[in-house]
Write a structure and sequence with these properties.
By secondary structure, the protein is an alpha/beta fold. It has ten helices and twelve strands.
């Protein structure tokens, strides 16, 4: 796809949507939509938005990503992540629009014990993963030129995510509000900065890569590893204690090891993702003004 092509982003006010809109605007004509402008559960509104804007590609970021919320309300999870995505895929077929759907490492059960590649068979443990997999299948079956981009453990300076909450804890410690932090050390994945995903998406679009694609930071770590590295970088003197996921019961089961391998990107020679700790360091350098 050539520079200057028109992209329409659903969920453009989410952390991934914001990064895509901000960074891809340098190369493409970007149309941003949020829930009020394009409620993906409203088929008529979605059809009108796609037809009126006539994009070359729709980047589908809108989703319900509350893992425990999905477990407690599966009907809504499937309606948003599965059925709405399937209808969007059908609309894109009718308008001749390519669709790029952002999915998740939670489509895997974590039993492999090493990074999953795109050819591995999904087997979700929770409703969130199953609903996202339903969306994947709809996008894949609708058009062979579509793409499914799986990401994992996303973080940014905007919105609510695990990393931003830990930065807030570091800020509180400097204000004299420090308490020991217990962090899970038996769940592993690939923490990925949304800016890295946005830059990689530009490469995917520029090379017309289709099918299922993993786009995550290189390497795997636990939440405990991530927090200790974060506090080291910030110079935060906070006590971090290891704990097991079983000590914090949650509605939805999480995979113990859901790190992904960017096999397709490497085969295509366009893997620009970096090690997770390198990207984390740059993220902190760029957002240092937000860390007091």
């Amino acid at each position: 796809m050539k520079a200057g092509a028109k992209l329409l982003i659903t969920g453009a006010d989410g952390q991934l949507g914001q990064a895509l809109a901000r960074l891809l605007d340098e190369q493409f004509a970007v149309v941003r939509t949020n829930r009020s402008a394009c409620d993906i559960t409203n088929p008529e509104q979605v059809r009108e938005v796609v037809e009126d804007n006539d994009p070359d590609v729709v980047l589908h970021c809108a989703a319900w990503t509350d893992v425990d919320g999905c477990e407690q309300d599966p009907d809504t999870a499937y309606r948003v992540n599965g059925q709405a995505t399937a209808r969007l895929a059908d609309i894109c077929v009718k308008t001749g629009t390519r669709l790029v759907y952002f999915s998740t490492d939670f489509v895997f059960d974590g039993e492999k014990g090493e990074p999953y590649c795109e050819a591995d068979q999904p087997s979700p443990l929770n409703v969130y993963g199953r609903s996202k997999l339903e969306g994947e299948e709809a996008v894949r079956n609708a058009n062979r030129d579509n793409a499914i981009v799986r990401v994992s453990w996303l973080y940014s300076a905007r919105g609510r995510n695990f990393l931003s909450s830990m930065i807030q804890r570091a800020n509180n410690s400097r204000a004299g509000k420090s308490e020991p932090i217990r962090v899970v050390d038996d769940q592993f994945s690939s923490p990925t900065w949304v800016n890295e995903v946005a830059r990689q998406t530009a490469a995917i679009l520029g090379n017309d890569l289709t099918g299922t694609i993993h786009a995550v930071a290189h390497g795997a770590c636990s939440r405990y590893d991530m927090v200790t590295r974060l506090f080291d970088e910030l110079g935060a003197e906070l006590q971090v204690e290891r704990c097991r996921a079983a000590e914090f019961p949650q509605a939805a089961q999480r995979p113990a090891y859901s790190a992904l391998a960017n096999t397709r990107l490497q085969q295509a020679g366009i893997d620009i993702m970096r090690p997770w700790d390198t990207a984390l360091r740059e993220f902190l350098n760029q957002t240092r003004a937000r860390v007091r």
